[in-house]
Specification:
Blueprint: H1 2-9, H2 15-31, H3 33-40, H4 50-63, H5 67-79, H6 85-101, H7 103-112, H8 117-129, H9 135-142
Helix pairs in contact: 2-4, 4-6, 5-6, 6-7, 6-8
Amino acid sequence: MSDHLRKFFKLLNSWTIVDGFCTLLKPFIKKNKNKFFEFIKPLFDNANPPFVRRFAIVCANNCYCSFEYMNYLFSVFDKADDSHYYVHMAIAWCIATMYCTDKDSTIEYLKKDKLSLKTHNKAIAKIIESRIPSADEKRFIRTLKK
């Protein structure tokens, strides 16, 4: 499987292909959660092309926003080169999903993250756009904007 995926990575040239493919993989990932996470870990590396990194981030967003993976993902995001628009957006989206899963951990992360200014603020915006936080929570989240 991993050899086929690596060959497919050469075709990743748009967010629609990445996001659609990640959605199709969701049932497989859920059945092979730990093994697949080990497969995607190296894909977060900044040396990879942007859409390969987006693939890893969207897979994380779809299947790994639980407490057991959050600290690892936060550390990856702190080191990420988010200069590519679709990497930047994927990170912000994933952080918003993490907020919906574990508000306290995500707030603590946002208070001390090493994200770029644009990604930090986009993550805040994505959280506020969600229907999950209450009006009071949204007011507080706005105070975390840099």
